[in-house]
Write a structure and sequence with these properties.
22% strand; alpha/beta; TIM Barrel; eight-stranded parallel barrel; two-stranded antiparallel sheet; 207 residues; 7 helices; 10 strands
């Protein structure tokens, strides 16, 4: 099981992640969603991304991105664009123009939402199932995706906590995506980050 840590705001946390003995495979930055307390303003983002990603991939988290933001960030060292609220045709043109791998984010409330993944099977590199919370850490019923068979990697997000039985997620997801669960008083907590990354390593060593 791979890991993604999302909502990075500061260089200290980012340097800790990239230098960790078991770094997350993916590190996410909130690029254009101003409602999120984890939103990173463009000039700060440019500075942050000068930090060597080493063995991790940098992910731009984008909610219905317009041309302006896409043009601004095209010079930044992102490996993936994680996109919410775009049609498959919009994604196709973004992928073609900017030559980035795409994580399609599908927000889930019911089975009908889950089935939307079929619209993106030709354009997604990874399918992410998330809650409807956006900037809030909300959960959804993971049973809705427990029997899915995809021909690409499945990422799982939505109020995941380090106290959860993370091993149970391995049965349904290839990648677990955590953000608020690693925070104390709204900021990333290095001790929680370390516990999480070590837990993922332990789970992978045991299986």
């Amino acid at each position: 099981m791979k890991s993604k840590i999302c909502g990075i705001l500061d260089s200290k946390t980012l340097e800790y992640l990239t230098s960790h003995p078991y770094p997350p495979q993916y590190i996410g930055f909130i690029v254009n969603y101003h409602k999120s307390k984890r939103f990173v303003e463009y000039n700060n983002l440019k500075k942050l991304l000068k930090i060597n990603k080493k063995n991790s991939k940098y992910v731009a988290v984008l909610v219905k991105p317009n041309k302006d933001i896409l043009e601004k960030i095209k010079i930044l060292p992102f490996d993936y664009y994680q996109i919410y609220d775009c049609t498959s045709n919009e994604i196709k043109s973004i992928k073609k123009k900017y030559n980035k791998k795409i994580i399609i984010a599908i927000t889930v409330n019911n089975l009908k939402d889950v089935l939307k993944h079929q619209d993106y099977k030709d354009v997604a590199d990874i399918i992410l199932f998330d809650s409807k919370g956006y900037e809030k850490s909300l959960a959804f019923d993971h049973k809705l995706i427990s029997d899915l068979k995809l021909n690409k990697e499945l990422m799982l997000a939505g109020n995941i906590q380090i106290e959860d039985n993370l091993e149970s997620y391995k049965k349904i997801a290839d990648i677990v995506d955590i953000s608020g669960g690693l925070e104390t008083s709204g900021l990333k907590d290095i001790s929680k980050v370390n516990i999480f990354l070590n837990k993922i390593k332990q789970i992978n060593d045991e299986t």
